Amino acid sequence: MRRAVRYLIAVERVRVKKKSLNLTEEQLEQLKEREKTEKASRDSSFRNLYNTVWLLNLEDGKPALETLEVGGRALQATNIHERLMELLMRVSPPKVFDSLTAKRLSDLIKIEEGVETKDVIDTFFSSPEFPRIIDENVIKKAISKGVKDSLFGITNKDKVQVVKDKPVVAKEQVIIGKEIPIEEIDLPSGYIVSSKIIPTEEKPEVPQTPEEETEKPEVHEAGKITQIMYSLKVNRQQLYECFNALGNLVEKTGELSLKIEAQTKEGIDASWLKNAVEEPIEEAGVEIKREEK
After folding, report:
1. Which of 134, 161, 194 is the C-terminal boundary of a domain?
2. Model pTM greater than 0.70?
3. What is the C-alpha to C-alpha distance for residues 22 and 14, in angstroms, rounded to an integer?
4. Which of 285, 277, 287 has its CA nearest to residue 145?
5. Which of 166, 194, 222 is the endpoint of a domain?
6. Each residue's pLDDT expressed in tens, for the chain with a length of 293 residues
7. Fewest CB within 10 A of the end CB: N or C in the chain?
8. In a 3-state reduction of DSSP, which class is residue 146?
9. Which helix or strand (DSSP H or E) is residue 153 part of?
10. 292 inside domain
11. Alpha helices in 17-99 (DSSP H)
């Protein structure tokens, strides 16, 4: 890199004195080509300065460093920051995420009764046990989705009172079951409320007159299948080749129910399984239930 920079400085000095040096058009063209070559060499040297990222993890409750290297990976980005982010986010298994499902957020922060959004942010950016996220907007989007899906509610912490060591908040002060723009979520003063402590209005029961209903048998068009089950055993390449076929099926049915069973004699590292398989599936908004032996 030092050599390339020296050449670039020399090229600039020669260009400034091109009239006094009586440079020809051919010589100026050669100078331009040399400058282009040395700039490419300089930029390549800069990129090679950052080929390794060290990440802090916890292993068996003790701090440990995980090394992530560019190696022979063909990264598309050329800017240093963008290359590192591509390495951290796009290379499997990803180490940094730009999205988080509402259910995953709820499972991580374990909302028993309520928690300040400020504490949630502090935990995400200070604990190596939590997924690494690119910025606070990831949390805001997850909160917005959780409120809309009624997983929890949100209010301002000034609206929350503590009675006998338990948070109490009036129902009209809580937003739940509604869409809330992320711009309206104030992380420093927000408070996530568990749906368990939000008061519910008891509606009087209206007696209903039982009516005899005659169940009509479902009539299906001849030759039409209403339910189908497959059992497949595939390797990695076959799995890729099956994606389009399964996509055709889900286009007709709306959704599929998948049961995946995998086994290996060597065993699978639990941390790798979480980072490389379970978290990417959950980040896609897919609920996953795990059984292991």
Report:
1. 194
2. no
3. 11
4. 285
5. 194
6. 788 888 888 888 888 888 888 888 888 888 889 888 888 888 777 766 777 888 888 888 788 888 887 776 777 777 778 888 888 888 778 888 999 999 999 888 888 788 899 999 999 998 888 889 999 999 999 999 999 998 998 999 888 888 877 888 888 888 988 889 999 999 999 999 887 777 666 555 556 655 555 555 555 566 677 888 878 787 777 776 777 777 777 777 878 788 888 888 778 777 777 777 777 777 777 777 777 76
7. C
8. helix
9. strand 152-156
10. no
11. 25-48, 80-89
| Alpha carbons 229 and 220: distance in angstroms, whole number | 18
What is the number of structural domains in the chain? Answer: 3
DSSP structure class, residue 65:
E
Residue 214 is assigned to a structural domain of this protein = no
Verify that 247 and 172 share a domain, yes or no.
Answer: no
Helix axes 2-16, 25-48, angle to 10 degrees: 150
Going by the DSSP 8-state scheme, the letter that residue 124 receives in this structure is H
Is cis: bond before 204, omega within 30 of 0? no
Asked, for residue 166, whether it belongs to a domain, the answer is yes
Domain range for 261 is 236-283
Residue with structure tokens 């109490």?
Answer: 168
Which residues 6+ apart lie within 8 Å of 153 measured at CB? 147, 174, 175, 176, 192, 193, 194, 195, 198
Q: Are residues 187 and 134 in the same domain?
A: yes
Residues 170 and 240 reside in one and the same domain:
no
How many other CB atoms are there within 10 angstroms of residue 190's CB atom? 20
| Domain-embedded: residue 289 | no
181 & 251 share domain:
no
Q: For the chain, what is the radius of gyration of the CA atoms?
A: 29
